Amino acid sequence: MNFKYPKNEKLKSQTAINLLFSEGKSVSKYPLRLVFVEIPNAEEKLQIGVSVSKKHFKKAVDRNYFKRLLRECYRLNKHLIQENIEKPYAMMFLYQTKDRLSYQEIEEKTIQLFTKFIAEIQK
């Protein structure tokens, strides 16, 4: 299993991000939300970005802390998604609460969210 989070897996394309928020679908498991869209002609099977609301965390230090946690949870559990998708997807992983959850709680919610995502795309 590859637990890396290489540069080509990071969602950076402005057109993909615009497509994501205009046509994307989402699944959520409080306090996390995953917005996703299928991308034709993508080099990488999975591209993901993380976001934490400035509305909930005014200080950049706090936002960066939760973004690091989200990236780490993704990195350790991405195999759940990669084993179950055939088409390339772009995703945005969002933390949407003022609550300061622990890493264990966030990781548990991430696994539940990824399971919910897999169920959604296999419909």
TrEMBL record:
CC annotations in GO = ribonuclease P complex
Which Pfam families does the annotation name? Ribonuclease_P
**GO MF, one example:** tRNA binding
Keyword Nuclease appears in the UniProt entry: yes
Instruction: List the signal peptide residues.
Output: none
Q: Which domain of life is it from?
A: Bacteria
Give UniProt keywords alphabetically: Endonuclease, Hydrolase, Nuclease, RNA-binding, tRNA processing
EC number(s) stated in the UniProt entry for this protein? 3.1.26.5
A biological process (GO) annotation for this entry? tRNA 5'-leader removal
State whether keyword DNA repair applies: no
As its record notes, the protein acts as a catalyst of:
Endonucleolytic cleavage of RNA, removing 5'-extranucleotides from tRNA precursor
Identify which top EC class this enzyme belongs to: hydrolase
InterPro entries per the record?
Ribosomal_Su5_D2-typ_SF, Ribsml_uS5_D2-typ_fold_subgr, RNase_P, RNase_P_CS
The annotated subunit structure for this chain is: Consists of a catalytic RNA component (M1 or rnpB) and a protein subunit.
- Protein family per UniProt: Belongs to the RnpA family.
> What role does it play?
RNaseP catalyzes the removal of the 5'-leader sequence from pre-tRNA to produce the mature 5'-terminus. It can also cleave other RNA substrates such as 4.5S RNA. The protein component plays an auxiliary but essential role in vivo by binding to the 5'-leader sequence and broadening the substrate specificity of the ribozyme.
What's this protein's name?
Ribonuclease P protein component
- Species annotation: Flavobacterium haoranii
